[in-house]
Amino acid sequence: MDGSKKKIILGIVVFLLIASLTFITIKKYRYPPQKRFQDKEILIIGIDGFNWHVLGPLLKEGRMPNIRKLMKNGVYGAADIDIDDEHLWSPAIWTSMLTGKTMDKHKINSLYCIYKGKLLTFPMSTMRREPALWNILTRHRIPSSFVSFLATWPVEKIYGSMISCFAIPWAFIKNADYLGREDFFKKYGNPRWLTYPYELMDKVYSYIPPAEEIDEMMKRYGIPLSIPRERGMQEKEGHTVITEHLREKFLDSVHTDVDLSEMEIIGILFLSGQVPRMMFIMDYISTQLAVDFIRKKDTVVDAVYIGGVDIFSHFFWPQSKNPARDMTETMRNYYLYIDDLVGQLLEDAGEDTLVFVMSDHGYRYDFESKVTRHDQEKAVFIISGERVKNIGEIENVGILDYVPTILYYLGIEAEGMAGKILKNIFFSLPSRQ
Ligand SMILES: [Zn+2]
């Protein structure tokens, strides 16, 4: 055999070796959940700003059947948040909830972040200094899916699937019917890091309904298509646009020539007055994607973030000292919509699934500054399932307790967590085998 032939054969051998190793890795990566996790399914429903001021009266009226069912089969109450008013930012609180660590440790402590000298709306996942639940599950080879949670862009590679917080907004604004902003998309093309795996983005696009369909759905639920003028929005040429005041405050100073920044995406959405539609449909699509992951049954933990309650609360919260009494129709209707989404998620989850409903804060109307602010009080939590004692309302549950409790349920040691394990809510645990 001459030298060149040897080289070719060697080349082929090396190629086959690499190919088979790659194949083994891929195959290993796609394995169904290990047996020891098969009866430990967990569903996490994160609802931003979900709170008892609205939920309580609706339950009394016999509404919210799906939430009621969860409450009946478990424990519930108002979560201790224990964060000062200055830091009650949703991405910061959610990061605490999903890392089990306080802000001084995970370092996500604002609504904004500075990236390459620019101010961006929402911190980036790369700024988080502590592992989140999805990282811990990945380390233990527990397959999971996470949909739309805040501060998850750029998306992280996990053992499972992840839809970052900007995947659905991106797909929504890419639908040029809304904005006529093809120039924007030509400039940026198709961004990576919105979903993991990357191909999931096609699925996200496929769920965006035509504009008329969204409007139709919103009308059916009694949810307004635009935001009231006095809350920072105004009508302009038939569209609701952000007022000059807010524009100055949030947008003009920050969103020029930032490459693919969240700020630009959010800025365009605001300027085009699409926020109510975007949030409404984001909640809908997040739910459909989560239902798909639950149905596939190859994950142990499925988690979905529903953000519309927060946006609608900021614009439609009653200007009242007694919000539970004076709640607006829009808020009530949005909660009824959320209950339908929760129903869809529960339909495909097994009877023995452990369900967490969690929220990050409540609201209060600030009469001095005339805006609705986040509040420590009345954030909802519900933990429900066959293995949870149905003892109703409980106290002393904090937002830092969720991750340690989830890990305990899965039989994993929690490391350095500030919260406590809610051992007493379970009357049995999945088998440790
Ligand atoms: Zn929030």
List the helices and strands and how they pair.
Elements: H1 3-29, E1 42-47, H2 52-60, H3 65-72, E2 74-78, H4 90-99, H5 103-106, E3 112-115, E4 118-121, H6 133-139, E5 144-147, E6 160-163, H7 167-174, H8 176-179, H9 182-188, E7 195-196, H10 200-206, H11 211-221, E8 233-236, E9 239-242, H12 244-252, H13 262-271, H14 275-296, E10 301-306, H15 308-316, H16 323-326, H17 329-348, E11 354-358, E12 362-366, E13 371-375, E14 380-384, E15 392-393, H18 402-410
Parallel strand pairs: 1-10, 1-11, 2-15, 5-6, 5-10
Antiparallel strand pairs: 2-14, 3-4, 6-7, 8-9, 11-14, 12-13
Helix pairs in contact: 14-17, 15-17
Bound molecules: zinc ion.
Describe the protein.
- The protein is globular, with a radius of gyration of 23 Å.
- α14 (275-296) packs parallel to α17 (329-348) and α15 (308-316) runs antiparallel to α17.
- It contains 18 helices and 15 strands.
- The relative contact order is 0.19.
- 43% of the residues lie in helices and 15% in strands.
- The model is unreliable at 22-29, 231-235, 238-242 and 245-260 (pLDDT under 50).
- The protein has helices spanning 3-29, 52-60, 65-72, 90-99, 103-106, 133-139, 167-174, 176-179, 182-188, 200-206, 211-221, 244-252, 262-271, 275-296, 308-316, 323-326, 329-348, 402-410; strands spanning 42-47, 74-78, 112-115, 118-121, 144-147, 160-163, 195-196, 233-236, 239-242, 301-306, 354-358, 362-366, 371-375, 380-384, 392-393.
- The chain has 433 residues and is α/β, with parallel strands linked by helices.
- The strands form 4 sheets. It has a 9-stranded mixed beta sheet with strand order 7-6-5-10-1-11-14-2-15, with helices on both faces.
- The protein has a single domain, classed as Alkaline Phosphatase, subunit A (3-Layer(aba) Sandwich).
- β12 and β13 (371-375) form a beta hairpin.
